[in-house]
Design goal:
Number of helices: 4
Shape: flat
Strand content: under 5%
Radius of gyration: 19 Å
Number of domains: 2
Largest sheet: none
């Protein structure tokens, strides 16, 4: 009886892992969007390379490192962030009309 219960839960764990990966890893989402969106649609991806940090990380030194890496990424990808800001502003203007 317990074996059946575990077998029933196993597919749910697999689905949960896929959903968690989609929510926390931009690589899978990026691939899906890149293949599905038309070329005329702007798609921007801002993704600092800090993927080996756990979601529940609490170590102050690691969190500080993560903040520093994010700030460095934002500085290096300033043009991408400016494009993102322009796209957001354009979206705001068009949705207010």
């Amino acid at each position: 009886m317990a074996t059946n219960a575990v077998q029933g839960i196993s597919p749910l764990l697999g689905i949960s892992r896929v959903l968690l990966d989609l929510a926390t890893t931009s690589h899978a989402t990026h691939s899906i969007l890149e293949s599905l969106l038309p070329e005329s649609m702007n798609y921007l991806r801002v993704d600092p390379l800090i993927s080996f940090i756990e979601m529940d990380e609490t170590d102050p030194q690691r969190l500080s490192w993560m903040r520093e890496e994010t700030l460095q990424h934002m500085t290096e990808d300033r043009k991408l962030l400016e494009q993102l800001a322009f796209t957001c502003a354009k979206l705001l203007v068009t949705t207010r009309l």
